[in-house]
């Protein structure tokens, strides 16, 4: 083993996203020498995220974070929308308590949020290096990871521990052999448009005021490609997009921009965005298979966190990633700092990282919901159930006088048959959902 | 002796978001030439007049291998004359002072000239090519009407270069890490005896162009682009020099280049 004090740092964190910055904060606060490497000119500069951040985990790292964090709107309305071709069924919940400290979730521009979080890491003592891409791992004779190679001249850096937070396509985790073969069906393609509207128009259309915001998650509306849609309100823009299962998208030979255009034209969506100007169009791959696609989290001299560890929860009603990234980063930083202090950075010495993940919501949620991502992206949930549910509601609320009102059981039975759903499938999926969500 | 690179740090957005701030390609070329033209033992110094944020550009410059950096604490709206006076007081005695030919905000471009006057040394501005020799430099200056001026620079001078003249080297990782803790000298800016009281934004001068000929839109587009017109085929002829010269003059006249 090389001498720790001869290293350039105790801990190198690769990627200054939410996971990386939280790892750097935790390790630096534990008194370790930390270098945080970011490929963009500033943290968040490469980001296309348009979603809701749930920063509860920051209570521990950045007390009263809501006073300084760059937030667009505090989400006070959560809506789950099921779309058929022309119909829409929404379950909508509003809580004004979510718009007050200590808050619940917020929409944010990640270039602002990530940059803010990285400043907390620098304030904690980490050294941030930007515009620098890590191109590979350095290993000693025994194969232990002892540092990273970057694209800069004289660009090798050594450290006792490397924390890989390099995102969904983590080349470092792959190089370290932590992933088995990549399966495209584990990934979705997230495609997003940022649509500009005056703030007062957004307030009126979404029924909010001041810094209150809305989160709409959509099932259906993706032109037959398995996935989902979303609409989030920022201060004077709307993030609207779809996530699309990669093999289905490739098999159906549909263009993502055409699917977004179809969603924008849906009768339930079009009035919300009428007159908006497209300011951005972006796309990114998302690890959506949850627990079943996760890599080995630890190897000698290295741990992996955030999207790089596939810690993204896509469980239908819960679509969360940033909070899992921040929590896993924090655990990684703490475990790395403790391992350096014990002078044992072997996989065994770093194992407390996995223990921490297992003890918190990070892996407990993923384990509990391990079958839900597959259920949510199945053909039944994606195609047949939305048609079934919207047809039932359509008939329940349609007044066909002079005909008397039909019985609800009869409508459900008829529409289930019409949608081609077997009762056994419905029971099985219901049981899977109940076990996951229950 | 000292070689100096003058850098102008600019936020190129109306919302004052300094994450997008930086220096122009021309300033980057100036920095590269400062590094290339320094003789063994000479200090290479970067100077920037501006607010605290300008130190980021100076640290990036230090990471490329500079000896030290100076920030002149000056309002970013200060006139070129005031900037030149302040820089001159900070770099007096320099052998070479390299500047970019333009900044990111497309200012007046007059600072290098003012600086040469304040320092009392020569100037070679608007350079499009630089060849550095042991004792002198050969430089090419852009003149009006597509003309060029080739000059030899032997003594102390202010030189301004265009962005295409050099590509700034990529700083080493060790340089970047060290620059993070480098000490930036900060000195107070000076007022200038000559100050601009008003400065208009960059507006290229309008030029009168003749309308394209043709009655239809298609004809006018063809006229503008020369599309579809027969191109003059090249021809090789072997003639005695007097006849060859006469032939060339005749061809140029036929093609409309001579009156």
Kindly describe this structure:
The complex is a heterodimer of chains A (438) and B (259). In chain A, strands 3, 4, 5, 6, 11, 12, 13, 14 and 15 form a 9-stranded mixed sheet that branches. Chain A has helices at 18-29, 58-61, 110-124, 171-175, 199-206, 246-252, 256-265, 270-273, 322-342, 352-359, 361-368, 372-376, 379-397, 408-418, 423-437, and strands at 9-14, 34-37, 52-53, 73-83, 88-94, 106-107, 127-129, 134-139, 145-150, 156-164, 187-196, 212-219, 227-233, 237-245, 277-287, 298-299, 302-304, 313-315, 318-320. Chain A is α+β, with helices and mostly antiparallel strands and 438 residues long. Chain B folds into 2 domains: 2-188, Rossmann fold (3-Layer(aba) Sandwich), CATH 3.40.50.620; 217-254, no CATH class. A 9-stranded mixed sheet of chain B has the order 7-6-5-8-4-1-2-3-9, sandwiched between helices. The longest helix of chain B has 14 residues, at 241-254. The mean pLDDT of chain B is 89. The A-B interface holds A 8, 35, 41-42, 45, 111, 115, 127, 129, 132, 150, 152-157 and B 19, 170-177, 180.
Quickly count the domains of chain B. 2
What helical percentage do the residues of chain A reach? 25-40%
Mean pLDDT across all residues of chain B, rounded?
A: 89
Largest sheet descriptor of chain A? 9 strands, mixed
CATH fold-type name of the largest domain in chain B: Rossmann fold
Strand order of the largest sheet of chain B: 7-6-5-8-4-1-2-3-9
pLDDT under 50 segments of chain A (min length 5)? none
- Gyration radius from CA atoms of chain A, angstroms: 23 Å
Major sheet attributes of chain B: 9 strands, mixed
Q: Which series of helices and strands of chain B comes N to C?
A: EHEHEHEHEEEEHEHH
Shape type of chain A:
globular
Helix/strand/pairing category of chain A: alpha+beta
The top-level CATH class of the largest domain in chain B is Alpha Beta
Strand content of chain B: 15-25%
């Amino acid at each position: 083993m090389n001498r720790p004090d001869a290293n350039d740092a105790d801990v190198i964190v690769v990627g200054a996203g939410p996971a990386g910055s939280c790892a750097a904060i935790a390790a630096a606060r534990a008194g370790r020498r930390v270098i945080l490497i970011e490929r963009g000119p500033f943290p968040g500069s490469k980001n296309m995220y348009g979603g809701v951040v749930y920063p509860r985990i920051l209570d521990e790292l950045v007390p009263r974070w809501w006073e300084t964090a760059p937030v667009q709107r505090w989400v006070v309305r959560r809506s789950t929308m099921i779309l058929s071709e022309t119909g829409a069924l929404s379950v909508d919940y509003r809580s004004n308590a979510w718009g007050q400290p200590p808050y619940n979730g917020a929409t944010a521009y990640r270039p602002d949020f990530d940059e803010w979080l990285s400043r907390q890491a620098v304030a904690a003592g980490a050294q941030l290096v930007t515009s620098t891409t890590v191109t590979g791992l350095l290993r000693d004779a025994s194969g232990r990871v002892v540092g990273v190679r970057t694209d800069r001249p004289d660009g090798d850096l050594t450290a006792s521990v490397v924390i890989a937070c390099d995102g969904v396509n983590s080349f470092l985790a792959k190089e370290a052999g932590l992933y088995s073969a990549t399966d495209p069906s584990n990934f979705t393609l997230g495609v997003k448009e940022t649509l500009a509207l005056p703030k007062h128009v957004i307030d009126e259309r979404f029924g909010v005021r001041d810094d209150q915001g809305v989160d709409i998650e959509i099932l259906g509306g993706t032109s037959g490609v398995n996935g989902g849609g979303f609409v989030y309100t920022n201060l004077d823009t709307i993030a609207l997009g779809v996530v699309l299962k990669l093999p289905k998208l490739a098999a159906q030979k549909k263009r993502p921009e055409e699917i977004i255009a179809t969603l924008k034209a849906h009768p339930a969506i079009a009035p919300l965005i009428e007159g908006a100007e497209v300011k951005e169009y972006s796309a990114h791959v998302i690890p959506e298979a949850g627990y079943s696609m996760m890599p080995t989290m630890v190897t000698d001299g290295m741990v992996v966190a955030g999207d790089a560890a596939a810690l993204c929860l896509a469980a239908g009603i819960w679509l969360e990633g940033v909070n899992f990234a921040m929590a896993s980063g924090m655990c990684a930083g703490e475990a790395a700092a403790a391992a350096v202090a014990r002078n044992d950075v072997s996989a065994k010495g770093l194992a407390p990282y996995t223990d921490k993940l297992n003890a918190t919501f990070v892996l407990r949620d993923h384990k509990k919901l391990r079958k839900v991502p597959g259920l949510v992206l199945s053909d039944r949930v994606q195609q047949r159930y939305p048609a079934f549910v919207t047809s039932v509601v359509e008939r329940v609320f349609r007044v066909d006088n002079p005909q008397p009102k039909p019985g609800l059981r009869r409508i459900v039975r008829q529409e289930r048959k019409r949608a081609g759903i077997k009762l056994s499938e419905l029971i099985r999926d219901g049981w899977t959902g109940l076990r996951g969500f229950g | 002796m000292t070689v100096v690179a003058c850098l102008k740090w600019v936020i190129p957005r109306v919302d004052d978001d300094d994450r997008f701030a930086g220096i122009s390609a021309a300033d980057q070329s100036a920095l590269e030439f400062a590094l290339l033209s320094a003789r063994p033992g000479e200090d290479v110094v970067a100077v920037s007049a501006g607010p605290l944020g300008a130190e980021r550009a100076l640290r990036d410059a230090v990471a490329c291998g500079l000896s030290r950096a100076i920030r002149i604490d000056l309002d970013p709206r200060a006139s070129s004359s005031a900037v030149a006076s302040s820089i001159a007081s900070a770099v007096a005695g320099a052998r070479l002072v390299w500047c970019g030919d333009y900044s990111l905000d497309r200012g007046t471009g007059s600072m290098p000239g003012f600086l040469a006057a304040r320092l009392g040394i020569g100037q070679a501005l608007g350079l499009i090519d630089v060849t550095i020799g042991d004792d002198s430099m050969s430089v090419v200056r852009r003149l009006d009407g597509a003309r060029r001026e080739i000059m030899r620079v032997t003594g102390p001078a202010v030189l301004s270069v265009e962005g295409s003249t050099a590509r700034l080297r990529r700083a080493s990782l060790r340089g970047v890490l060290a620059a993070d803790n480098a000490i930036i000298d900060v000195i107070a800016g000076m007022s200038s005896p000559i100050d601009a009281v008003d400065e208009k934004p960059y507006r290229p001068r309008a030029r009168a162009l003749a309308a394209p000929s043709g009655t239809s839109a298609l004809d006018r587009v063809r006229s503008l682009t020369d599309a579809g017109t027969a191109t003059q085929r090249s021809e090789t002829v072997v003639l005695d020099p007097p006849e060859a010269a006469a032939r060339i003059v005749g061809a140029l006249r036929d093609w409309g280049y001579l009156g």
